[in-house]
Write a structure and sequence with these properties.
By secondary structure, this protein is α+β, with helices and mostly antiparallel strands. Helix content is about 15%, strand content about 30%.
Length: about 160
Amino acid sequence: MTLGTLMKTGGFTTYGSMDKLHQFSSTFTELQRRIDRHVKAFARKLDFDLANRRLEMTDCWVNIMPRQTAHGLHLHPTSTLSGTYYVKTPKGCAAIKFEDPRLDRFMAAPPRKAGASRENQAFVHYPAEAGNVILFESWLRHEVPANPVEAERVSISFNYNWF
């Protein structure tokens, strides 16, 4: 078994080799416990009808992104909710970028004005800030642009399912 896989443009992730960290380490189990309450509140906010089932963490992995490392546009097709906990985020590091899910329907739409309101932008960026967690529905396409700073950006990502 490998210790992890390199991201296509550099960097390191334990996804695909050690992505059940919450089942093997008390540190990650404690992180899961803390994230669980946020996931529960988020599911309520989304009006999920879980049919008396619980959302449970299925995957949990570490990402290390040195300078110029990017994680291309993707989604998490076999999950319900996904998220990232930011461990180390040097000043100026890349934010997570979400794509408007309607983007492929904009066919003949003119470009948006610079400074358009958030709800009218094709992409929305949320800053990576150490100690914060960001949650989103797993169908939402997202990416992390290349890290422009010398210091590493370190995060722990995870998925939750209800089935």
